[in-house]
Write a structure and sequence with these properties.
With 120 residues, the protein is mainly α. It is built from 5 helices and no strands. It has one domain.
Length: 120
């Protein structure tokens, strides 16, 4: 298996575990979601980030989870980029979300293109 692909998966797992927990418990994240006007979506976002991370872990045992989890995380980061830019944040502020979008998109494309998911 491709080393870059594995590194991207591990990075995504670790970062979304961390940020998912941070979104659920850190006061700074409560303030960020208030600034975005998305307070009611904060807990849902944290839970989805944790589920995406767990889905990537499950993907080591059930490959179809990899595409679903990374696809969901890609979509979330796309929304995150749009939200940051609409709130007037700079491209530099949106860069972490852009990078995670690209990493998870790579995971999806690699998993589909290399045949990580068994053909039927």
């Amino acid at each position: 298996m491709n080393m870059l692909y594995q590194a991207c998966k591990v990075l995504s797992i670790l970062l979304f575990l961390y940020y998912g927990l941070a979104v659920l418990v850190a006061n700074a994240m409560v303030e960020e979601f208030a600034r975005f006007g998305l307070v009611r979506f904060r807990k849902l976002t944290g839970i989805l980030e944790l589920l995406g991370s767990l889905g990537l872990i499950l993907g080591y045992f059930l490959p179809q989870f990899t595409v679903a989890a990374a696809g969901g995380l890609t979509l979330m980061m796309g929304v995150g980029v749009v939200v940051r830019l609409r709130c007037g944040d700079s491209l530099a502020d949106a860069l972490p979300a852009i990078v995670m979008l690209l990493i998870n998109l790579y995971i999806v494309v690699y998993a589909l293109g290399v045949g990580t998911i068994p053909a039927r």
